[in-house]
Design brief:
Layout lengths: L13 H36 L3 H21 L4 H13 L4 H26 L2 H5 L2 H25 L4 H10 L6 H11 L5 H25 L6
Helix pairs in contact: 1-2, 1-3, 2-3, 6-7, 6-9, 8-9
Length: 221
């Protein structure tokens, strides 16, 4: 995500920008890695020791929001900071406890997220590029099914199990929104590809739900 804006072309003048972006990524990721594995688990353990669920929730939220604020101040995406904050908290052995306390808020934010993505879709741009949308949907659904089925088979699971895993993952990932927004802001993709990505998210979720529902009821076929 940090390097993406610097990869718009293969010109020699881009090498300096790529190197600068790589330096920024290193400067950010090294302290975040240290925090994730050394500092945050100890902090969360001490907070748990106080017996205060409210304090635990506030500390978890502060870590996530603070990480997002730092990355935005460094000129990076706010969403990327929130993503890194979630990774930091997930390295703690108390991550499941944090998730349990954040579930009510998660449901509210997930609903807001889906509504927001839906309002960003420009129907006219999607209608004008049906071929692009169909291609993206095919790459996502068929491509992810084939890739994940092959990956699970490599671990010597039965083909039926591998196929079920592949079916369950036949939708676009949320991280793709961060990538396409960064690419759009850097001028690497146009509005047509941006809108097609958002629309393919909606369509692949519907396809995924139908496929999962179908394979989950083998006795009805």
């Amino acid at each position: 995500t940090v390097l993406l804006p610097s990869l718009g072309s293969l010109e020699a003048s881009r090498l300096l920008a790529v190197g600068r972006a790589q330096l920024v990524a290193t400067v950010i990721l090294i302290p975040f890695t240290y925090l994730a594995f050394k500092v945050v688990p100890r902090v969360m353990t001490r907070v748990i020791g106080t017996g205060s669920e409210e304090l635990f929730l506030l500390v978890a939220l502060s870590i996530a929001l603070g990480t997002a604020a730092v990355t935005q101040a460094a000129g990076l995406s706010l969403a990327l900071g929130a993503f890194l904050g979630g990774l930091i908290i997930s390295q703690s052995r108390h991550a499941q406890g944090a998730l349990a306390r954040l579930l009510p808020m998660r449901d509210a934010f997930v609903a807001l997220f889906f509504v927001t993505i839906g309002t960003l879709i420009n129907p006219a741009a999607v209608v004008d590029n049906p071929g692009l949308l169909a291609t993206m949907i095919g790459l996502i659904v068929v491509g992810k099914f084939v890739i994940w089925t092959a990956v699970v088979r490599l671990f010597r699971y039965p083909l039926a199990t591998a196929a079920l895993v592949g079916v369950g993952l036949t939708q676009i990932g949320e991280f793709s929104f961060i990538l396409v927004q960064v690419a759009r802001a850097a001028g690497l993709v146009g509005d047509d590809l941006y809108n097609a990505t958002l629309a393919s998210w909606l369509v692949t979720i519907l396809i995924n739900a139908a496929l999962v529902g179908y394979v989950a009821r083998p006795g009805e076929r």
